[in-house]
From TrEMBL:
The gene is sufD. Pfam families: SUFBD_core (PF01458). Residues 1-14 have a biased composition (Polar residues). InterPro entries: Fe-S_cluster_assembly_SufBD, SUF_FeS_clus_asmbl_SufBD_core, SUF_FeS_clus_asmbl_SufBD_sf, SUF_FeS_clus_asmbl_SufD. Transmembrane segments: none annotated. One of its GO terms (biological process) is iron-sulfur cluster assembly. This is Fe-S cluster assembly protein SufD. Belongs to the iron-sulfur cluster assembly SufBD family.
Amino acid sequence: MTTPVTTPANSMPTKGDRFQSTDPAAFPVPHGKDEDWRFTPLRRLRGLEDASAGKAAPAARPAVTVDTGDQAGVTYSELAMDDERTGRAGLPVDRPAAEAWVNSSVADHVLVAKDTVLEAPVTVTVTGAGDDVTTYGTTVIELEPHAEAIVVLRYQGEGVHSDNLEFVVGDGARLTAVVWEDWGRTAVHLSNSHILVGRDATVRHTVATFGGDVVRSVPHVRFAGPGGDAELLGVSFADSGQYFEQRLLVDHSVPNCRSNVLYKSALQGESGRHGSEARTVWIGDVLIRPEATGTDTYETNKNLVLTEGARADAVPNLEIQTGEIVGAGHAATVGRFDDEHMFYLKSRGISDEEARRLIIRGFFTDVIRRVPVEGIRENLEDVVEQELANTVL
């Protein structure tokens, strides 16, 4: 199954015209000179980049558990990979994701029925099969028209994992999704995500990345009808030796849709030691096509560098092909503690160390408070506190 690049006559391809295919051979093996892979530490992917990961031992399926809370109107099933319900939001856009597709024995499918309003979150837990064990997966989260649900997708354990995620949100539906990268310290995870937003539908999508050795996520948002509203939030805390990358695309191709992106990262590494650098990369692409009149969009990425030996790359890109929009903009910052904030707190008798901790908490709170589920907010705040307990300030 392949989706070729298609563009209008006499026009240049855009970032939104991504080649998609379920055939790994249709993609070149990633190379450090490729634009999409130029930041990624390919040597640390443990074979996911060229399919050598599964040669030492057969690729496995991770342990997947789905807790629906026994709520009416939500079902879980396993789909064959050639089922017509897979691939609707999008197909793999790189070789590791295509390998994940062909090596997935089934797709895990969570379906929320039309007009259903779930009171409790649905939790999907993916557990790695162990250090140096390669696993592949495909997950489809689907909300039928006018359904409302909160879905938490949590990754944990150790392993080498590549997968495809699909979020299919029907007309008038409301989805709050939290993707929690809670891996063990040596795990490697590569992921393609496709989010299809229906007419007058609302998506609140949050990525929390704290665990793992290398975590690379490629989210792609498309709108299926006017009135769609997508908010993409992200928080991450990279410690010494960790590499986290978010490479997202919001593709506005229909009128009167809204998108807002806010990602925040804190980093602490060790200077002068090989392999001890903390690194984050954020690539934010927003495309407004000629037909997407009435678009309202803004994207922000902020990075707080806590120590030497930490590096954050932030690359916002905004491509506008029509002037008939409500608004569009982007901002990205990489910096250390704000001197004014430090002065204000110290002038009130707060120590340097405690002042820095308060600033870090406030830095993340701006994102975490937007998650509309108290229990999830508390969990994320607890993780931030655990990171602060191990932070050298």
